[in-house]
Amino acid sequence: MTYHGNTSEDLRATLDRLGVSAESLNDGDLVVTSPIDGHELARLPRSSEKDVDAAIANAVTAFDHWRQVPPPRRGELVRLLGNELRAHKEDLGRLVTLECGKILQEGLGEVQEMIDICDFAVGLSRQLYGLNIASERPGHRMQELWHPLGPVGVISAFNFPVAVWSWNTALALVCGDPVIWKPSEKSPLTALACQQLLENACAGFGDAPEHLVQVLIGEEAVGSQLVNDGRVPLISATGSTAMGREVAPAVAARFGRSILELGGNNAIVVAPSADLDLAVRATAFGAVGTAGQRCTSTRRVFLHQSIHQRAVDALTAAYARVRVGDPRDAETLVGPLIDSASLDAMQRALTAVRDAGGDVIGGDRVEVADCEDACYVTPALALMPASLTSVQEETFAPILYVYAYETLEEAINRQNDVPQGLSAAIFTTDIREAELFTSAVGADCGIVNVNIGTSGAEVGGAFGGEKATGGGRESGSDAWKGYMRRMTSTVNYSRELPLAQGIRFDI
Ligand code: UN1
């Protein structure tokens, strides 16, 4: 692999172009390193308990102003943010690569997702439709009104360090809500860059309230303070199922609202009639793309027994062509894992496959000169014995568990027989199979695709999943409703007072 040189120098230049001052980057003790070569990138100060408290108080004040700004005007701020993102797409994408190890194409794709959600939200700012509902009473009008909710706490993960923030922020802003963001402690620099771009947009906007969008840097303690504070009516949290298990009850205990986007265990079913070339390419992209570190990554593939061997051969050949290396290299398809804990988890999972009688192809560590502290691996195919139940845990690494199946009902049952329910896909040219898979008795996930893979969802659809994935929906469709307060309002314009349900109450 070719190493493209010191990441900290690359980082300084990139941050400089993004307008983030280098001065504040060494004032603290939260050490940020690049997964590309393990070099230290920054030492950031952590937000203290007092800082978090002040940020929440500031957000409450900003809310009082922002909720009174007409939604299309709020959309103007998001339009300006979209422009900033367009102007800085290359640099922000590169920063994602430097801090998170995604290949440049995927860093750019992530920023494109941000631009797309801004466009979506700008359009939404002239909609935010409520229903008119037929009233059962004469001379009455019943209507649903949507009002701003209040400060939104966003907790995000390292793997989509900027897009997840933008899904939440673009919607929250047009809905009239301030945002307080706690990015992953593994990717705080991309957060500082987003904050800078947002501030540029605010400067162009003119009269946005101060502290409309804020960033807090730190670990779990910071997130937990946000989660437990009753002044933050909505917590939108992306991360592991274990994290969601702590966040959900804490927010519920104070009757707050949460949008949870947690682990996935996504499967592709390849049916006998499938276009095998499409199926193999989609499976490989889903499983090895982003080094298997997407919540939508393909973790399992169920191959019909009639095409099992052909598909395994094609996958093995595709895996052999995958270039692992410095994600800044245009030839690279798989960059590093985020850290050594990830590498350990991957090795443990592969040992478990071998212990269970499975065969592992790949999954070897790739040593790179000058990058001894980085964790590069070849993606792994885990060929599983037919007798085994499907793996239940999500390992955030490029491992694809390969199973054979006999009937579609069996494949659907096995796809569903895991705690998570984010994304599933079928490759088939048989319309009956496709329809069954997406039907009420088909895959039980929030995202179910036909002839495309499990990852790479467009922003226009609602994003999220069922069961241990947390049930939340972000991004497109009507996910905006999660960021607003619904009011049912009935107006009586008659001179009578008829009661609902026909009740007579003569007083
Ligand atoms: C995530 O991994 O947290 O559908 C989000 C996808 C991307 C988003 C992934 N649009 O793969």
UniProtKB/TrEMBL annotation:
One of its GO terms (molecular function) is aldehyde dehydrogenase (NAD+) activity. CDD domains: ALDH_F7_AASADH. Coiled coil: none annotated. The active site is at 261. Its EC number is 1.2.1.3. Homotetramer. This is aldehyde dehydrogenase (NAD(+)). Keywords: NAD, Oxidoreductase. It comes from Chromatocurvus halotolerans. Belongs to the aldehyde dehydrogenase family. Residues 29-486 form the Aldehyde dehydrogenase domain.
